[in-house]
Design a protein that fits this description.
This protein is mostly helical. 84% of the residues lie in helices and 0% in strands.
Length: 237
């Protein structure tokens, strides 16, 4: 009992809340816009799946650092490293769990469900990643990641989920080939946006900081509007 009253515990609790609360806010935001409220148990497992995807993604992260070194300064190396070792693997790990856990669930029957599922996996990933960063580098990174990195993971997921819900609808209609194409489009669009974000973030420390903020702001406006639009035009699949 005494441990929970110590300054150390208080500091750790503050760090944990700073790492988790931004993602919790966005999870609630997407949940509120969903028309088909998914079971809490399923959503909880999707968040846990995001944790597992984050653990898997740590392997290529270390490989990237070994091969390209840190910090990266050459634009070509940025693109290659972010594409091959970060975006492809991170979004791939998210998609594998997303497909395995949700494709056959009986409550997957609207387009927006695809966005909900993808966002919960992706923000689970973001929570795990954010805890690592905040505890490793301190509160100085908490605000930056709250407004940049965590919403970025939501943006990647919204794109993936947009196509994922439609792919499920095509599968239900027996259009297997179209379903596969839509799934590929969802994955590729998330990878490309993720790669672009990471590259701009890396280069922002050199001379593109202002441009990076503008690009990120535009992405977020589009994504939040897309969430609202997809909720308003949601349909059964």
């Amino acid at each position: 009992m005494f441990f929970f009253m110590t300054p150390f515990f208080t500091v750790m609790l503050i760090y944990l809340l700073a790492a988790v609360l931004p993602a919790v806010f966005l999870l609630r935001y997407v949940y509120d816009w969903s028309n088909n409220k998914q079971p809490y148990a399923l959503l909880r497992y999707l968040i846990y799946g995001g944790f597992a995807a984050a653990l898997l993604a740590m392997v290529p992260e270390y490989l990237q650092a070994m091969i390209f070194g840190q910090p990266q300064t050459a634009a070509l190396k940025d693109w290659i490293g972010n594409f091959l070792f970060v975006a492809l693997v991170e979004e791939g790990a998210k998609y594998i769990y997303l497909k395995k856990r949700t494709w056959r669930v009986p409550t997957f029957y609207t387009r927006f469900d695809g966005i909900t599922f993808a966002v919960y996996v992706s923000l689970g990933f973001a929570i795990f990643e954010n805890i690592r960063y905040v505890f490793n580098y301190g509160m100085g990174v908490a605000a930056q990641r709250a407004f940049l990195a965590i919403p970025a993971h939501m943006a990647f997921a919204v794109l993936m989920g947009f196509f994922y819900g439609r792919a499920k609808g095509a599968e239900n209609k027996g259009e297997h080939d179209i379903s596969i194409i839509l799934q590929i489009l969802g994955y590729v669009s998330a990878v490309l946006l993720h790669c672009a974000y990471d590259t701009f973030a890396t280069l922002s420390s050199i001379d593109t900081g202002f441009e990076f903020v503008l690009v990120v702001a535009l992405i977020y406006v589009i994504v939040f509007l897309l969430v609202k639009q997809q909720s308003a035009s949601d349909r059964y699949i």
